[in-house]
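Give me structure tokens for this 90-residue protein.
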Amino acid sequence: MPNIKSAIKRAKLSKLQNAKNVAARSALKTSIRRFEEALANSPENAADALMKACRALDKAASKGLIHKNKAARKKSRMTKKYAQIINKAS
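Here you go.
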């Protein structure tokens, strides 16, 4: 345990920020999972889920939750999957 008052405050803040980041990462993973489920079940509704997932990835990258290149890579892969499914359906 920290003995210095400022170190105690930082430890508290660190716990709070960690909990916030865990929740945000979980929400991000959920949005990606919802896109994949929409793509598997009803490809015509997957466009909306793709937009939501891309927006969530952009927000996470801008807040420093994930690296911007990771966000770009995930968006690219999701868009490719979406395009393949839509082209097969057509």
